Amino acid sequence: MKFGSDISSWYWWLSVVFVGIAINLASSYVKPPMDRWIERRSDRRRVAREARDKVFGAKVARISVDPTLLILAGQEAAQCEIRSQLTFILVGVNLILLFIVTSLPEPRSGVIVFLIYSLVVILPVQLMILMKELKDEANLVELYRAARERFNNRN
C-alpha cells in the first residue's frame, strides 16, 4: 500500500510534473542536433550505397559479357556456399561438443577444462567468421544471378 500513499501525496505529483517538464525541455534542445546528425549519417550511407551499386553494376557488366567469367562467378558462388555450410556444421559440432563436455560430472581433468575454455573462446570467433562467410555468399550469389540474368537477356 506504500504505492497508494505515494501516489496520493503532493510531493509525488510535484516530482512527476517536474520530471515531465525536464524531459520535454531536454528533448526540445536535443532533437535538432540529433536530427542533423541522423541526416548527415543517412547522406553518407546513401552516397556509400550508390558507390557500391556502381561498382556492383560494373562487375555485372564485365562478367555478363564473357561466358567464361560467368561460369567462374558461378563456381565462386558455389564454393563460397559450401564453405559457409561447412563452417555452419563446424559451429554446430562445437556447440554439441561444448554441451557434452560441460555435462560431464565433476571432477574434471585439466584437459576437459582446457577444452571447455577453448570452445568458449573459439565459438564467438567461429560465429563471426560464419556471419562474414554468409554475407560474402549472399553478395557472390547476387552478383552471379544479376550477371546471368543480364547475359540471358542479351542472348
Automatic annotation (TrEMBL):
Q: Which UniProt keywords apply?
A: Membrane, Transmembrane, Transmembrane helix
Say which domain of life the source belongs to: Bacteria
Q: Which residues cross the membrane?
A: 12-30, 86-104, 110-130
Q: What is this protein called?
A: Uncharacterized protein
Organism for this UniProt entry: Inhella proteolytica
Q: What is the lineage of its organism?
A: Bacteria, Pseudomonadati, Pseudomonadota, Betaproteobacteria, Burkholderiales
